[in-house]
Design goal:
Elements lengths: L1 H34 L2 H43 L1 H25 L1
Helix pairs in contact: 1-2, 2-3
């Protein structure tokens, strides 16, 4: 549960960062319109895009880390409760089979 709470906090922080980037971009675009120089607009836009790429890369790394932790947790749970795991897999397999059969016969 603690991991999920940390993930939520990290997500909120990253979303806040991305929102500030968008706000900054909007401000810089408005400023460029006031200066009306294309070269300055290009440079400022490149700065904003570079910063957005940095945040996107950070978000990607965070998501990969959380996915790895979730996979390890799932494996540990499966090892601790093999009967429950087998039951869940059986139910999901039956549900998937039902949905596939339904889509085939619906045509």
């Amino acid at each position: 549960m603690e991991t999920l709470e940390n993930a939520g906090q990290a997500k909120d922080g990253i979303i806040g960062g991305l929102k500030s980037i968008v706000t900054s971009a909007e401000d810089k675009i408005a400023e460029v319109y006031d200066n009306s120089t294309v070269q300055a607009a290009k440079q400022k836009l490149e700065e904003v895009v570079t910063e957005a790429k940095f945040y996107a890369k950070h978000l990607e790394e965070l998501a990969a880390e959380k996915a790895k932790k979730a996979a390890v947790c799932a494996v540990e749970t499966a090892k601790e409760h093999p009967a429950m795991t087998a039951g869940v897999i059986a139910i999901l397999g039956t549900l998937a089979g039902f949905l596939v059969a339904r889509s085939i016969y619906k045509k």
